[in-house]
Amino acid sequence: xxxxxxxxxxxxxxxxxxxxxxxxxxxxxxxxxxxxxxxxxxxxxxxxxxxxxxxxxxxxxxxxxxxxxxxxxxxxxxxxxxxxxxxxxxxxxxxxxxxxxxxxxxxxxxxxxxxxxxxxxxxxxxxxxxxxxxxxxxxxxxxxxxxxxxxxxxxxxxxxxxxxxxxxxxxxxxxx
Length: 176
Hints:
The chain has 176 residues and is α+β, with helices and mostly antiparallel strands. The protein has one domain: Immunoglobulin-like. 28% of the residues lie in helices and 31% in strands. It has three helices and ten strands. A five-stranded antiparallel beta sheet has the order 1-9-10-3-2. A hairpin with a 2-residue loop joins strand 6 and strand 7. Helix 1 packs across helix 2. The N terminus is likely disordered.
């Protein structure tokens, strides 16, 4: 489903790109693959320590930090809307997938490896940061996923979500 744009960009704003929302079911398989990779790495860390128990959370968080790039998220709320901002700097539109449920946002991203040609053959660009993100954002208020606006602007993912409670009240009022 294609998200809708809430307002026209200002003249000074950097260019932005609207993102298409993905179905939750489509992202679940990809999420599962990332979580399995984290579990495998956490188990490797456990084995490296000589299978010493009691450090499972430490191993899990270290594996996450090795495989996933951190995403800073800020949220603000009004009577009608929830605004979410996520720093996904370095990820392009085609590398990001966003899914919105009534009470949860899923942001996934996987960097494509850029290849540069040299005289001796191909050399891959090496980035020491992890090349993928997986961020689940729980929402305190139910929203209407199909009416949300998702856009990428200069490394900032902007998500505008209309609250469902306000819509339900308005619908009930017009029906009466």
